[in-house]
Design a protein that fits this description.
alpha+beta; seven-stranded mixed beta sheet; six-stranded mixed beta sheet
């Protein structure tokens, strides 16, 4: 998952013991044609049970979100029936389960599904892991929100039939076995595989291309039609070709889908921007009003992170991931690898493939070091990972994208130094993929020993001291191995933020107006345009802004450059004024790193370009 960060949804098996297989799939029917009261009907025909009772579950949690989201709260009118249509007794032990009496007679269950996008203001479900129901326009089917599983039946195959308006097309990595234009039929070998394949229905807007034998699908839903798949594809293709070139022989899937939902930002639409990865796809939610340049820049970072999850945890994962329990999960110790190595790759590949320069790479790393130190730097990372659903570890989750990536960087540097530049952490992940692979999970407690055997004893000591231990990482020592030293950087700042963190604007809750905080010292952007504390920002470059779309304004500022034309409409003491001028961005000093001297140049080249 990446919430302007990211998330993994790689789960592979559930046990099957309490039923007699009759050779039939669990057949699911999802009706997207007859939506009533913003709810979708689901019917599940069940296999034969040998027990007197059974329990049906909708997931409490899905991998990659690391939060208990209770998708069962969105299920209504759950009923169970025998073959004659007689209703069976059902009780509800908790938000996500339904206990059914007389299970030997059970023939089907029915229920209605409400979506999460239109009530995000009261429920905290990360939008890329959520669901959308917009009749005749768009349906985001993260399957864990629509289809559940019966106790001990996760290994049975599923057949899902989706009935939909002929004007809508389902973008997914699943294979549709029905040729009709209103009925899609998807088959999956087991429940975890099914929920690992999201589907987005909307009017067809997609492109496809092939990279080294992998088919890539880019599908877009833009409610106002501002952005199309063709707008995004050239940069996405350039990025993904660079990623595949960087990865080399690792190729875990033959098809990969990027499902991009662009929200209009209204109260009843998605507000959680970012992405959630699956083994063969990524679901992305971004603002439709983002300038194209900003959208492409954000997608490059977010989607590249998700795509790199084909390395870990798809090819390398523990039993906690492989045998994931959606309702009583046991978490793995190794989020530093699943998210940290992935995030590191998402940055390293860009400098490796020439998408960014070395200075930009070092700037990104410096930002991660600074941000990571806002968390407890002595926290045992393996213990944090294992207990990530509990406090205080839950509050430290974002650090897996910061310190987790820095852990990966230091391992990379250590391996590069010991191998005289011949190998790095990518080679280690390739070796781990060969050792395990997607169908052979490792024991959590065995991973460090395996990594040490496949690399160097010093790597094992690093893991013991800085990952499983409580010692803060001495980053300068590792940078010195590559001829990189600390420096002070001058970088363009954000005109609405001080030191890139402290807001210079606030909101009047009564009027929703955006106000420059009274009493602040105006920065150079403001003084150039004659703005000061207490001014109400009404519009910028012809777009009106208030609380409802304030994040669109902040996103737009990230694309501004010195010298660009700008028009600001503001209110001061009741009078509305408009000023036109040139953008002058504030300059901020920040801690950074840069390469020095030639003594380590060859080794540094192997690290960043090898």
């Amino acid at each position: 998952m990446k919430k302007f960060i990211c998330t993994l949804s790689f789960v592979l098996t559930l046990s099957s013991t309490a039923f007699a297989q009759d050779g039939k799939d669990i057949k699911v029917a999802i009706d997207l044609k007859n939506v009533k009261d913003d709810k979708v009907s689901v019917v599940i025909n069940t296999p034969v049970f040998t027990t007197e009772t059974t329990t049906f579950f909708i997931p409490k949690i899905v991998p990659g979100t690391y939060s208990e989201d209770n998708y069962g709260k969105y299920i209504e009118e759950f009923k169970a029936f025998d073959k004659k249509g007689k209703e069976l007794k059902v009780t509800k032990p908790d938000d996500n389960s339904w206990k059914i009496e007389g299970a030997k007679k059970l023939a089907k269950v029915t229920y209605l599904v409400n979506d999460t996008y239109d009530i995000e203001g009261t429920h905290e479900i990360f939008s890329p892991a959520g669901t959308n129901i917009a009749a005749d326009k768009n349906f985001v089917l993260n399957i864990h929100g629509f289809v559940g599983y019966f106790q001990d039946m996760g290994e049975l195959p599923y057949e899902v039939t989706v009935t939909h308006p002929s004007s809508l097309w389902g973008a997914t990595s699943l294979v549709d076995t029905n040729a009709g234009n209103e009925i899609d039929v998807f088959k999956s070998p087991r429940y975890p595989d099914l929920v690992d394949h999201p589907i987005m229905y909307s009017k067809p807007d997609y492109t496809t291309f092939t990279v080294d034998g992998m088919e890539i699908l880019i599908a877009v839903y833009s409610p106002k039609g501002k952005i199309t798949a063709k707008d995004l594809t050239p940069e996405m293709e350039r990025m993904m070709r660079a990623q595949k070139k960087f990865l080399g022989p690792i190729n875990s899937t033959k098809k990969y889908s990027v499902l991009i939902y662009l929200t209009d930002g209204s109260k009843t639409d998605a507000h959680g921007y970012g992405a959630l990865e699956h083994t063969t796809s990524t679901t992305v939610v971004m603002p439709e009003d983002y300038p194209l340049e900003q959208l492409l820049s954000t997608l490059k970072d977010v989607v590249s992170h998700e795509f790199f999850h084909i390395v870990t945890p798809l090819s390398v994962h523990s039993k906690e991931i492989h045998f994931f329990n959606y309702n009583t999960p046991k978490m793995s110790e190794h989020l530093w690898m699943y998210e940290g190595v992935t995030e590191y790759f998402a940055n390293l590949f860009q400098v490796n493939q020439g998408l960014i320069d070395e200075d930009d790479f070092f700037r990104r790393i410096a930002e991660k070091i600074t941000q990571s130190r806002q968390f407890d730097d002595t926290m045992d990372f393996t213990n944090m990972s294992k207990n990530i659903l509990q406090q205080p570890y839950k509050e430290a989750y974002y650090n897996v994208y910061l310190k987790g990536a820095l852990i990966a960087m230091c391992i990379d540097i250590e391996i590069r130094e010991k191998s005289n530049g011949q190998k790095g952490i990518l080679h280690l992940m390739q070796d781990l993929s060969k050792e395990y692979g997607s169908n052979k999970p490792f024991n959590d407690e065995d991973l460090f020993a395996t990594i040490t055997r496949l690399s160097y004893p010093s790597v094992g000591e690093f893991l013991k001291t800085y990952v499983a231990g409580s010692t803060p990482i001495p980053y300068e020592n590792y940078f010195a191995k590559m001829g990189v030293t600390k420096t002070t950087l001058q970088t363009p700042g954000n005109p609405l933020l001080k030191n890139m963190q402290e807001p210079l604007i606030t909101v009047n809750p009564a009027t929703k107006e955006i106000v420059i905080i009274p009493g602040i010292e105006p920065n150079v952007f403001m003084t150039t345009l004659g703005l000061k504390g207490g001014d109400i920002i009404a519009a910028v470059n012809g777009t009106a802004y208030n609380l409802d779309n304030i994040y669109d304004l902040i996103g737009a500022t990230e694309t501004w450059k010195d010298g660009n034309d700008i028009t600001v409409t503001y209110k001061r003491e009741g009078a509305e004024k408009t000023v036109k001028g040139k953008i002058k961005l504030p300059v901020e000093n920040s801690e950074g790193y840069h390469a020095t001297g030639s003594a380590k140049a060859k080794l540094r080249e192997a690290w960043l370009k090898g």
